[in-house]
Specification:
Radius of gyration: 24 Å
Number of strands: 22
CATH class of the largest domain: Mainly Alpha
Mean pLDDT: 92
Number of domains: 2
């Protein structure tokens, strides 16, 4: 059954248990079985003959991918593989595997198929990325040379062995085990419905990411200035939805209807895929070197220092108090979820500003940043990146900036945990507000002046920490660890305060807080 026709629970089970069939530009598609014979992607004149395509047209009930490869098998002829179908619907896919004695003939057939499928010429695409989307024709998903982390990361059976052979401090080794596992990345892509096992969504090229970002930005600008309404406006949203889900192939595409959906399922998904791609390049293929301490090797590649905080230290107790005062239970259906702190790490990153650099800046606070576990490796390796776009919803309201909060409750929303994996991470960063602070409670019409002036914007929420309970930490850094109380801004669209700066040099990651979400007042069975 195609995944978009299954109930979400069945789709999730299939997705998480599915094996990735194509890991990157040099990956031989698993269903060919040619990799078992030593098959490799055919390369000639700098071109790898491995193409992946996508097409989404919900009006015509079309949501398909297409794979084309030329595979060279040792002591054998060239093989041409072609497959077209829907995710999860292999029995109805159009598929063929042909052996060619004539290399030129195989290449010509590959080029002919490319032009038939896309309506574009092959060489201008491969050499210069020149391409024009044609109606009801496929669009190429440009994949990079590397290994998608859903294939290259450690599988469940390898995690214990890797940790046992790791020379890092045990708590750090356990943290690296989480970052280097396939699991957190599989879950993230499954939750965003970008989980097709046939497509290496964790190994897209920078060219493809830039195209996605351009299409998103163009649409946001268009819809903000749009005067049409009714069916004409719906057609604009529908057209973008087809374009977006052709670029970011989804197992469950839909028509975007509003800014919140755009934030949750386009902007946030784009940022998550971008971060997972960095993780894929950093992690590489770990399956073959478990006994050689791969966790220590990847720790060195990240290029930062991570060390556990002593639970009796003043900093640990300060952070524990900050969590307790500014967290509020999350309610899902009729169940409330509390939070407990499992461990806290001190972090020194090489990318981005150091603590010593930020502590010299004015108006500093220790603030919360929310993140998926799947995005953490990129944050540690490359520092914080600004939001990808400006939208009139929380998280994107003040434009392309780095957003933090003075409420752990706000950061916890981004943890994306579930009953079967309740662990997550919150980030604490030293955040300089700079000399000029602009207070707003509604989205500005245009965020560009704020971005250009590089001011700090404080978005005023309906709740705020009690200022009488703030403490001074060190180096004139304030910790807004007061109990959450109603603010004077009950008409604000923000529940909690948001702080946004546009210069990455004003924010330095300081602590990683490992947390566990727990069902409140849950009674455990004695056998459990």
């Amino acid at each position: 059954i195609p995944w978009d026709k299954q109930v979400p629970e069945e789709h999730a089970i299939e997705s998480l248990s599915a094996e990735l069939k194509l890991y990157g530009k040099r990956g031989v598609y698993k269903d060919t079985r040619l990799q078992e014979q030593g098959g490799q992607i055919f390369e000639e004149d700098g071109i790898l003959y491995n193409c992946v395509f996508s097409l989404c047209d919900q009006g015509g009930a079309i949501n398909e991918y297409c794979i084309m490869q030329l595979v060279k098998v040792p002591d054998s002829n060239l093989h041409l593989y072609y497959k077209k179908g829907r995710v999860g619907d292999d029995p109805n896919a159009e598929e063929r595997l042909e052996e060619w004695k004539d290399v030129d003939g195989a290449v010509k057939e590959f080029v002919r198929l490319f032009e038939e499928v896309t309506g574009n010429e092959f060489e201008p695409w491969e050499r210069e990325k020149k391409f024009q989307k044609k109606p009801l024709k496929f669009y190429p998903i440009d994949i990079d040379d590397g290994v998608d982390v859903r294939c290259g990361g450690l599988g469940l059976r390898q995690l214990g062995v890797a940790a046992a052979h790791c020379k890092l401090e045990p708590m750090v080794a356990n943290f690296m085990k989480v970052l280097c596992s396939q699991e957190i990345y599989k879950y993230a892509l499954m939750e965003m419905d970008l989980d097709a096992p046939d497509l290496p969504m964790g190994m897209l090229s920078n060219v493809h990411l830039r195209r996605c970002e351009e299409v998103l930005q163009e649409f946001i600008e268009k819809v903000k200035s749009m005067k049409e309404s009714g069916p004409k406006a719906e057609a604009v949203w529908s057209d973008f939805s087809q374009r977006w889900f052709t670029l970011m192939h989804s197992s469950r595409p839909f028509i975007f209807r509003d800014y919140q959906e755009l934030a949750d399922h386009a902007a946030a998904s784009f940022e998550c895929v971008r971060d997972i791609i960095v993780a894929s390049h950093m992690i590489g293929h770990m399956g073959d070197d478990t006994l050689d301490d791969p966790l220590s090797d990847r720790y060195k590649k990240i290029g930062c220092s991570i060390s556990p905080l002593d639970k009796d230290s003043k900093d640990y107790k300060m952070i524990l108090n900050y969590v307790e005062k500014t967290y509020e239970p999350v309610k899902l259906a009729d169940i409330e979820y509390g939070i407990s702190v499992e461990n806290i790490f001190n972090v020194e990153t090489k990318e981005g500003p150091s603590f010593d650099e930020v502590k010299k800046l004015p108006n500093k606070r220790l603030l919360w940043c929310g993140t998926r576990s799947s995005n953490l490796l990129r944050h540690l390796h490359k520092g914080f990146l600004p939001a990808s776009c400006s939208l009139p919803v929380p998280g994107y309201m003040f434009g392309k900036g780095i957003v933090c909060s003075d409420a752990a409750a706000e950061a916890a929303r981004y943890g994306f945990t579930a009953v079967d994996r309740p662990e997550g991470f919150l980030v604490l960063a030293v955040f300089s507000q700079g000399e000029e602070i602009v207070e707003l409670k509604n989205p500005p019409e245009d965020t560009k002046p704020l971005e250009e002036k590089k001011v700090c914007v404080k978005g005023l929420g309906r709740k705020k920490p009690d200022e009488s309970e703030y403490i001074d930490w060190k180096d004139d850094i304030k910790v807004p660890c007061g109990r959450l109380i109603p603010s004077e801004h009950q008409d604000s669209p923000l529940e909690y305060n948001e702080y946004t700066v546009y210069d990455p040099r004003q924010v330095s990651m300081r602590f990683l807080v490992g947390v566990k979400f727990e069902e409140k007042d849950a009674v455990m069975d004695a056998q459990d």
